[in-house]
Amino acid sequence: GTGIGRAICERFAADGAKITVADINPGPGFETAARIQRFGGKAEFIQTDIRSELSIQNAVAKTVFAFGTLNILVNNAGFAVFEAIEQANPSELRTMMDTNFFGAVWCTQAVLPSMLDRGSGTIVNVASIAGLMGYARMGGYCATKFALVGFTEALRDEVLGRGVRLSLVR
Prior knowledge:
Blueprint: H1 3-14, E1 18-23, H2 26-38, E2 42-47, H3 53-67, E3 72-75, H4 90-118, E4 121-126, H5 139-159, E5 164-169
Helix pairs in contact: 3-4, 4-5
């Protein structure tokens, strides 16, 4: 509903895509959907906790009900905690991994079977330069993005020749 996610939604909507804005925060999510609608686009907001497989499955089901199919998934949810490893809070590290990595895995698992059945679809995973090299005070964040890069590369090999495209944004 904010930042890069909002920009992605607005860009796809400008190209005629029907948009589901999935965000844990209803304020920004509703606002992004409303902005798209004001400019003539089709958009829905579905409150989604990316850390919950059930919440993700619900969002995918509602999207398919509203729009008939889900052709493009953009896994963009993420946040960073900037702490030295020796001081990093285990709970924050776990939440960051659940959001930045496992959220993308579970979203992908929720949409991939139907994409493979149709022989078409696109999955875009938004990583970071922090997924290519480590930075001081960013060890936990870097780990989540390294994991996402590896996941994307492996999945690309798994779906090669099956009609589903994978993209990685760094």
